[in-house]
Amino acid sequence: MRRALVVANATDVDTGHVGRRLRELGWELVTVLREGAGVPADVPAGTDLLLLLGSAWSVASPVDPAALEAECRLVRSAGDHAVPVLGLCYGAQVVAAAHGGRVGVAPQPEVGLVAVETVDAGLVPEGPWWAFHLDVIEPPPGAEVVARNGCGVQAFTLPGVLAVQFHPEVVADTLDDWAARYPALLERTGVDRSVMAAQAHEREADARVAAAALVDAFLARVAPEPSRRLRTP
To answer: Is residue 43 part of a domain?
Structure first.
């Protein structure tokens, strides 16, 4: 069975639609937490994929600089061993930082359904996708920007890496939980929580299909061959 190492915060461990698709494809998901020095410095043997989830944290203003640096080292280790990386929102920011990019604070938060302008709809469709962040990514040198919108870069690739600023994984209940935890972001963007919740439930099936398509395209087109991966004895 192929194994994905999931990096998450204790309050946001749900892999949602992305995790569902990986499990449908026969993947085992193993989660480590950013808190408490839970992130290994090197990719563990037997890891076939690194999945970096979103977070209430921001790379632009690190809550735990040591945890951020540990995750950056893990991302670079994945590259050294040809382990593919899929970074979602904060996870995309970590990928950028790990490879020499930058993350700043956006002039305006991005919350709710967003469309993106894509140069490769087969890999990253235009959406709409769910967004919940207040950051802007400057991709690292050598990255290929796949999608953007008026708020900035929304997706980029590196060899073996896909990083997206939006949330393909998020399910309706998780989105409503975020809205309850961070009402100031909704207020700043003029998003009505009840309207967003209704949209999320109405679009749940579409979101699941879109996430599955993104995962499938990532595995088929971005993930490298396993020639240099560390295997268990």
So the answer is: yes
